[in-house]
Amino acid sequence: MTDTHLVYAYAVLRRTPEAAAAAAHLRGVAGEPVRLVHPATDASALSFAVGPVPAGDYGETPLQAHLDDLDWLESTVRSHHGVVAGLVAAGTAVLPLRLATVYPDEHSARQALDTRRDYFLSLLARLTGHVELGVKIYADSDLAPPGTTPASAHGTASGLGVGRAYQAIRRRRQRRSEEAWHAVTRGAARLTETAGVLSVDRVSHTPERTGPAGNGTTLGNDAYLVPRDRADAFRTGVLAVARGIPGLRVEVTGPWAPYSFALQPEPAP
Q1: What is the pTM of this model?
Q2: Quick count: other Cβ atoms within 10 Å of Cβ 251?
């Protein structure tokens, strides 16, 4: 490898024949071949999946500029995930690393892996046999939290009788809206409780302000660590809670490699 290249690390995993064979068929963020590297004295057979990338794109200064380029970022995220997914498909436990974890050379990568060997091994032991599933919970767009005046409530009424009737209609609509909102939030709480029972860990992500296509309100955006053989039961159980609650929608995604539960190492200086 020449001085014009850096080492991009994708994941931590155990070195097995299956993992090495899977890596041999993968291409990384720069179209480079992926392979496994490990410390020379590592009896635990712990490895980084790595690939050589050009310093002109992945050095500190050019990388910062690239991270502001959404097209470049999207392509890199897709390629990074493709490597991780390919390793997961080999049936081995994988700790995905953060996007653009870059080391100056293979020696630095091996040194970082050796330094945090016990930490990585404990994480791998915890995540072996588990996958990540995402759960997003939405309230329909025609529902609003209490205290929010519906657009249809605004208007002008003339005459005493008409004005009182209008106010009565408005109060009734608000009560119905509040009752529907509370029913949805109670359903969301039950859904979150059910997901917690069916999983072994949960990470809460920052909810988006609105649901898909800008419709509705996001009530939850969580990731769950689920035993691989219970992934279907998790999905079925979560969706069953939402069924029959008007205005409540849920989206279950995955299974994924456990990105949300794999703490990320800092690159070597």
Answers
A1: 0.73
A2: 15
